[in-house]
């Protein structure tokens, strides 16, 4: 079992900032695993690596990382399945490493609850930027509470509840919901949301937004197929307007 | 079914009709003539016999002795009336003359002026008859002078002459009906002939037409097309030959397709296999670049070469994977309504080209397209202009009734005229200065494939100076 902790791997790399993430990297190819581990460590993250999904799941249960980077093609249970099982336990951020850039992989992965994905071969700078973008979603906003009927959003505590029952959203889902709530009644297009939530400064995949909205609807909408909170505006984007 | 007249059909129909018309005209004509002659002969014979029989019983004292002159005779007008009465019947007019005496049957329509002179003259010697048309009615005129055999056995004319007009209207009516019946039969025969001609033309032409349709289908790529072989005629043989040819063609094409898909599959597999080691290498290139500075000069330089080439290899493999996705038909289009200006600006900004490119376009230009594929097209066109052309690089966009048009113009030396048709070919390098470019050689091919996925086009033209690429995406 290659488990590798770097207590202080920070150097004067160009991309580091104050934030150091405890990353769990699951990748079966030893060279890719070690290469990414070296690069992420150099960028200042604390990296733990595993070669299989089963080992990774055990570790997640035992010691919660801040973020998981998952290869999709894994021996045994694949990355998408690992993602699905982690989601049952936890809302921690997950980035998928898709080897094929295959559209199906991406869609299935996002539906399974992944927050973002990168296509191999990925440049470490890009991966680092995505990690930091996700971590920034955890730090949030003003500490106030807003409620829309049965839905109560606690922006400070990053919690929401529906009918008094607490609902777990991933940081990405919460950030997207907050962004929509902040512009309640306005239509936000996918490009805007990708920039605001994912920090994607380039032309990114709008399916990230679509999949995330679907996941939020599944959690907060009484009837996800007939949403009352988040409305789709065809050809433009989404609008939050509470009933 | 649409019936397009063909030469063969017309010829068949005309031949059939000619044969039918000739045959039925001949049969009907001959039959009619036979019937007509027989009918009229019979009527004539009956009339003549009747006249002869009636006259043979004449007991008038004419020519019984040697008294031959009518003036000597004792025949009176009443005698003639009796004879007329004996000869007349329905539809008949009888005129009897004897010397100066003349008697016409009551209600008779004719006079001696209706009797042709020649007949009058001939009737002096023997019994004559002639068909006449008087007042548009057919008549048979039987004329004779009663003769007596005298004691010496010589025939002597008595001067008592009978002219009997027998109506042939009934016979003509029969013949008229016969003609009608024959004409109707002819019409029916003609219709049957036409039907038979069309049916047999269809029987001949249908397989020919089917062969034509099948051959066109074969030509347009439907290699499964086969035709049922019916009968043992030449057309059946032709159909069988067609089927064999199609089968052979299908076999060959499917072999070629298998080979082609194998080779494409191979390219795709190789690209995918290259991806894993490239991922490992790419992961550490940033570190190597940082650390190269700390190495001895030549080792540092070697390190930088490795890093640079890894980067090229990465682009090449990404492009190979992208193009093999187009080859396998796995590329899908996900259109959404976007702000074209935002897309273009993002595309340039993300690659650090915003300062090197002048972007001209109206504000708020929205269009339905796949933003990621559009980004790929723009990146490849602008990247190509920046690499191979000279500044200024101008990008313009506009939307008109046809759709979106984006042009990318550089002011370099341009592409040689003879190379223009090939700039979108894979791994095509225009000119020796481009032999070792940083591009994969697939960029423009990928741009074109992405445009075509939008049902759009990319064209290239020479400008003085430079080159103009024009991307057109139609409205959906």
Automatic annotation (TrEMBL), chain B:
GO MF entry, a single one: phosphorelay sensor kinase activity
Q: Look at the named UniProt entry and state the broad enzyme category this protein falls under.
A: transferase
List the catalytic activities from the record: ATP + protein L-histidine = ADP + protein N-phospho-L-histidine
GO CC terms: plasma membrane
Where, subcellularly, is it found? Cell membrane
Pfam family of the protein (one): HAMP
Q: Report the main location listed first in the record.
A: membrane
Matching entries from InterPro entries are given as: HAMP_dom, HATPase_C_sf, HATPase_dom, His_kinase_dom, HisK_dim/P_dom, HisK_dim/P_sf, Sig_transdc_His_kin-like_C, TCS_sensor_his_kinase
Q: What is this protein's record name?
A: histidine kinase
Q: Which organism is it from?
A: Planotetraspora silvatica
Taxonomic lineage of the native organism: Bacteria, Bacillati, Actinomycetota, Actinomycetes, Streptosporangiales
């Amino acid at each position: 079992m290659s488990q590798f902790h770097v207590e202080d791997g920070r150097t004067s790399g160009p991309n580091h900032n104050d934030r150091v993430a405890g990353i769990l990297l699951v990748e079966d190819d030893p060279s890719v695993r070690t290469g990414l581990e070296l690069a992420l460590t150099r960028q200042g993250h604390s990296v733990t690596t595993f070669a299989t999904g089963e080992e990774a799941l055990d570790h997640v249960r035992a010691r919660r990382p801040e973020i998981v980077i998952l290869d999709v093609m894994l021996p045994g249970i694949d990355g998408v399945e690992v993602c699905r099982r982690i989601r049952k336990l936890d809302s921690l951020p997950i980035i998928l490493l898709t080897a094929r850039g295959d559209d199906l992989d991406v869609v299935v992965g996002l539906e399974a609850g992944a927050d973002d994905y990168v296509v191999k071969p990925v440049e470490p700078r890009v991966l680092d930027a995505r990690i930091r973008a996700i971590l920034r979603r955890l730090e949030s906003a003003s500490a106030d509470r807003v409620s829309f009927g049965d839905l109560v959003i606690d922006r400070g505590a990053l919690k929401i509840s529906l009918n008094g029952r607490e609902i777990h959203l991933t940081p990405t889902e919460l950030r997207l919901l907050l962004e929509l709530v902040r512009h309640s009644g306005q239509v936000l297009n996918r490009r805007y949301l990708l920039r605001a939530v994912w920090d994607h400064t380039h032309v990114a995949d709008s399916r990230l937004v679509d999949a995330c909205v679907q996941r939020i609807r599944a959690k907060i909408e009484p009837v996800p197929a007939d949403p009352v909170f988040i409305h789709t505006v065809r050809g433009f984007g989404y609008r939050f307007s509470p009933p | 079914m649409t019936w397009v007249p063909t030469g063969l059909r017309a010829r068949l129909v005309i031949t059939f009709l000619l044969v039918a018309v000739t045959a039925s005209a001949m049969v009907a004509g001959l039959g009619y003539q036979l019937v007509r002659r027989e009918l009229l002969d019979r009527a004539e014979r009956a009339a003549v016999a009747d006249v002869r029989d009636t006259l043979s019983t004449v007991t008038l004292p004419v020519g019984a002795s040697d008294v031959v002159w009518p003036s000597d005779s004792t025949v009176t007008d009443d005698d003639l009336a009796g004879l007329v009465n004996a000869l007349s019947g329905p539809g008949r007019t009888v005129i009897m003359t004897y010397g100066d005496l003349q008697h016409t049957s009551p209600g008779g329509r004719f006079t001696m002026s209706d009797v042709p002179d020649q007949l009058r003259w001939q009737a002096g010697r023997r019994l004559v008859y002639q068909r006449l048309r008087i007042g548009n009615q057919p008549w048979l005129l039987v004329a004779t002078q009663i003769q007596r055999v005298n004691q010496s056995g010589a025939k002597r004319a008595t001067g008592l002459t009978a002219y009997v007009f027998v109506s042939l209207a009934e016979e003509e009516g029969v013949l008229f009906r016969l003609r009608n019946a024959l004409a109707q039969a002819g019409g029916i025969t003609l219709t049957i002939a036409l039907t038979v001609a069309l049916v047999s033309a269809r029987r001949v032409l249908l397989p020919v037409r089917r062969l034509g349709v099948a051959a066109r289908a074969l030509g347009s790529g439907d290699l499964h097309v086969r035709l049922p072989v019916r009968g043992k005629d030449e057309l059946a043989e032709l159909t069988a030959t067609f089927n064999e040819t199609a089968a052979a063609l299908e076999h060959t094409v499917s072999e070629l397709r298998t080979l082609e898909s194998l080779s494409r599959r191979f390219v795709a597999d190789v690209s995918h296999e290259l991806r894993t080691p490239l991922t490992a290498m790419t992961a550490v290139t940033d570190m190597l670049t940082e650390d190269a500075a700390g190495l001895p000069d030549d080792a540092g330089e070697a390190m930088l070469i490795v890093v640079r080439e890894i980067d090229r290899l990465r682009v090449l493999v990404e492009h190979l994977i992208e193009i093999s996705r187009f080859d396998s038909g796995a590329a899908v289009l996900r259109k959404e309504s976007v702000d074209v200006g935002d897309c273009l600006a993002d595309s340039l900004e993300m690659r650090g080209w915003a300062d090197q490119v002048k972007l001209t376009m109206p504000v708020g230009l929205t269009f339905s397209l796949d933003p990621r594929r559009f980004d790929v097209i723009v990146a490849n066109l602008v990247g190509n202009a920046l690499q191979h052309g000279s500044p200024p690089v101008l990008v313009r966009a506009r939307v008109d009734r046809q759709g979106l048009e984006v042009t990318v113009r550089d002011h370099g030396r341009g592409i040689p005229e003879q190379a223009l048709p090939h700039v979108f070919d894979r791994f095509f390098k225009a000119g020796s200065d481009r032999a070792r470019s940083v591009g994969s050689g697939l960029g423009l091919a990928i741009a074109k494939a992405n445009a075509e996925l939008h049902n759009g086009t990319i064209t290239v033209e020479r400008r003085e100076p430079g080159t103009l690429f024009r991307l057109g995406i139609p409205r959906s």
